[in-house]
Amino acid sequence: MRRSYFAACSVFLLCASAFGSVKWIQPTPDELKMTSDPQAPNAPAVYLNYDEYVDIKAHFHRVYARIKILTERGKEEFGDVEIPYETGATAIRGIEARTIEPDGTIVPFTGSPLDKEVVKFGHIRVMEKVFSMPNVQVGSIIEYQWERQYDDWYIFPPSWDLQKPVFMHEGHYHFNPFPIDPASSSGVSVPDGMGHVLLANRLLYDQQLPPGSTLKDLPSGIDLVVKDVPPIPEEPYSPPLDSFSYRLTFFYSAQFTGQEFWTSEGRTWSKDVDHFAATTDAIRQAVSQIVSPGDSDDQKARKIFTAVMTVDNTAYDRAHTEEENTAQGVKEKTAADIWEQKRGTPVEITRLFTAMARAAGLRVSEMAVTRRDERILNASYLYWGQMNNEIAIVSIDGRDVFLDPGERYCEYGKLAWEHTQVMGIRQTDGGTQPVLTPAADYKDTVVERKANLQLASDGKVQGTIQFSATGAEALRWRQVALRRDADEAAREFNDELQRDVPPGIQVTTAHLDNLTDSAQPLTALIQVTGSMGTATGNRVFLPASFFEAGIKPLFAAEKRENPVDLHYPSATRDQVKIVLAPGLTVDTVPTDAQIPYPKNAQYIAKYVGSGSVYQQARLLAVGNTVYSKNDYPQLRDFFQKAGAQDQQQVVLQRGGAAAPSGQ
Amino acid sequence: MKIDRGTGVSEAIVRRSSACLCAGLLLLACPGLARASSNPSLPDWVMQAAATTGSWGDARAVVLLRDTLLTVQPDGRAVERSRMVVKILRPQGREDAIPLVRFSKDEKLQSFHVWSIGPDGHHYAMKDNEYVEVGENDPDMVYLDGLYKVANPPGADPGGIIGWEIVEQVPGYESEDIWDFQQSIPVAQASFEIDLPAGWHNRAVWFRHDAVQPVTAQPGSARWQLTNIPAVDLNDVPLHPAWEALAARLSVHYSPNEIPEGDALWTEIGDHYTGLEAPESEGASDLATAARSAAGDGDFMAKASKVAEFMQTQIRYVGVEIGIGGRQAHPAEQVFQKRYGDCKDKATLMIAMLDAVGIRASWVVVDADRGVMAPESPSEYGNHMILAIEIPQGYDNPRMHAVVAARTGKRYLIFDPTNPYIPLGDMPDYEQGGYGLLLAGKDSQVIAFPVLNPAFAKTEQTAKFELGTDGTLKGDVNVTRTGGAAWRMRDRMTMSSAKEQREFVEKLLQQDFSTFTLGSEIVDNVKQVDQPLDLQYSVTAPSYAKNAGTLLLVRPRVLGSLADPLDNKPRHVPISFARVGTWTDSFDVKIPAGYTVDDVPDPVNLDVGFATYHSEVKAQGDTLHYTRQYVLKKVELAPDQYATLRKLEGQITADENSDAVLKKQ
Predict the structure, then answer these.
(1) What is the value of ipTM here, to two decimals?
(2) Which of A83, A127, B218, B284 has the lowest tally of Cβ within 10 angstroms?
């Protein structure tokens, strides 16, 4: 990826190119008789051509598409066209469409597109022009074109996603920009994503182009032709794919380079932080109630962190309306206001922590970050709005401790996984600098499950499970309880566990403990009832891994096109003890197993059968969470082997007792 | 509340990508914009409802008041005023307290007001410019003219109370109002009042509720009142019928004429509908020519099948509903020319085409969910249109399964042209066992749809495997589906790429193997809906058999589970299955050299009336032979049969997980 500066051309040609007014393209005989596409063997349809022409000075944006329908699904996906637009600022005009049947018959679209309201709020009204293509059959080619006209006061530099939902044979993109002299004091007003408006007089672009494509700087504007562009494959456990797709984004900027932009915007952001997190008398007064003069820095930080965690976080609750705030005399201007009203957004709560920690004499800096479940920070795209969260960094005994007070009930000293290993901008003594947040360790998220069960001679099971979790797993359930309530969290937790245990077993989780105390592991005591095992002759078979009997392998697909993101490292430790009824004895247990996946993961299972007691211990630790496409076979193999081991059976012998009933 | 479910539902057969802007998402996007007036006095009815006390268990919210007044004008148009007061009891109850109103060109919104009381007792009144308007969106429909107005009221937290009032016009072509007093949360108090012009009549029809006499019944006016209505909450209830099939409601029909009851009311509704649809089925000559060309020569079934095939393959599902277009089809000629339409458009075009080849057919109004229409509750309630094709007297054909007889003595073949995967002769499982309104003018009537023979919906799995000494299982599998057992798979395969088809098979195998490799995989007859759908593949599953000392444990039921996951909770609602059918498995597993069969699971033979299950494992030479057959004969069971079903499912699960024991010689 590279970022380039482009100087707007001084000669402006108004739609004079051959591109200016697209006419229909006559299909070739091969296109008409085409029933599948060797370049896109699985495609429901393919774009034969896709063109976009954007002329900012003339204030219009033209789209032309020519699509070959290859399957019934293609018919459904592309047979109807929806063109969104905002009334007032934009209008859609010049809609033309036609369908070409496989025998070459041309069926023009003769109706009027329908105008459909999508949403209206205040002065904003978003509409859609919708129409259905006539006579669409498998084998048809559909063609349509339309123009979006802008109001004179608006400028919409194009942002082109160069990967379509289906394979594209040829895409032609052309941008005739608004001429701005970088040396002049005039420019366009652009939001910076931080709540400020900047006067921008430089047109820049961020590009991630398909191989073999290059931008051309023509007298008529910037021109790009791309060929044979595949769609983005959708697969489970993929990182945010929009951050990896082919694209070309134009934007106006007040700066020339990324370094200038991030330094300048970082300084502005840092000032905002410091202003909001001012250590006012009210904050100092509040802190004096929380920390003691003799507390160490670590104790102070922990106490303040715990206090801040009691503040209602609107990310998990309902943001209050202005009227409600007015009725309650609430303002939202500074950290002191947040502390007073005991409610704030994640960013406000993080800044409250910063203010209080600074008031307690701690050295704290903030860091703006991008959640990696949503996007990966693109430093070439000079837009601060990519930073959607903040974390705090406290210096304790010369060591940076990364904290996440904006993630309610995140443990002290840990970050929510979405904030781990992400680039961001950190406050420093001299301003700001880009840094990487630390990665999580598998010891940060530990799940422990201990089952103590009794198996009766008829297969009935009774017992308990002791559950505890830390890190990301504990945070997940704590935040479920925040969004809904504790009863609902217990119910959902129980449903998840129920899917994992052997068929016939019922688990009952009355409640989850320590939901609001992130200093303690999340725990639960679960009752186990039901029945387990099957009988053949005088043998009884039990699942050797009680907690994984119902789990299906993580990765079914043999092939993979995207990288894999498992989100966070973790360790799961299980211990199972089953005391057998008189008349049942352990005959055979599986052989102990170790499945290593060096530097990435580890699986260990041990089984002990002695007379009337069967015990199992199991550890699954995953240290690495991101795997390339090339790593996928090994990753799949590891989980398949672990899954196969989890399906082992214990053989019991019985003497004259009733057979297990199964359910 | 007016009937706003419309017609034109396509049972998820038609898929189209479409931006979905739901009200909830929108509210999240603009949470801080409300500027409701400060501590105003609220209407008395809100304050009185807010004072309601009661015990509502673990409900997420409670409707304290649901009050509807329908005032009908002499020209047939009406105005409906609805009042609602909801108390939020748990955080997730906020979703039940979102003031929302649907309106359209014909159902003009006269006013919409929202008030709230915060948990701290503060009062709020919202202003007109604080509401968000959202277009009605259905992923199966291209255009709907409905709009929603939605509010994000202050104070919507547990303990908070939200009240709203809607005044809306009801178009003159409506003659029935539906009071859906039972909700997914408890209702403390509900009332419905109708005020009619002098000389007008009303007829109250109850659904899933004993008839209740109006508390006031003056000439031209009636008011019904109910209190403490329990919730119909189907969250986590396995195999439940559709919510609309269980929630009680009242249909109030109104007319300047006497309104009949029972079957006569069904006839009147059907006659009215026939008048709406019949003119649209007039076809021009090119349509008739095309129909004759499509139908070709042959007998009734041959010609009708060809027209059905034309409808299923040539007419794309596209829904456009404006005003009365929610219930009236577009002209057949127009649908034919554009080659697209919704369910009623397809039914109308097919009637016109059949007519052109001398076959008479009529529309049938149904609901895509079984149980929503009931013969004892005459109503326009329904969301789908299919057709009934008149069978010539004395004609018979073994392919005609979906046959009903009308009280006129005529026999009809029921057909749903919206489902492209069910051939003429069969009917979709979701319509079997339900009811529909046959539109035949003065001969209109409610008709019961048959539940087809389970033998017409067969799923047969056959496989031959070889087991290695290391536990690896390798073999070839053939899965054949016929009739109603095939259509969902045909849909999936039609709408999937080859890669997605393979991933689908891999996901199926994931249910039975912890480690496996899928070899070749072929699907045949996806589009030949009158032929069995065939899926063939090869698979290798390492570590399938488990070593236990000198033993090798093998699960003879290699593939596929027939057991539905059930819970242990008391059952209060009927049990609803997707369909009847017959499932058979026949798997051969050749055991490795050096091993003998030491023990096999006992055979299982179960007959519980509504289902039978038989399975057996035999050791024949060096082969384990597993066979089973499961036949499900009913689509719905009474709640008291849940224990029997649970026991059956438990026994099936135990059988499915049983092991055969091989011993090293």
Answers:
(1) 0.87
(2) B218
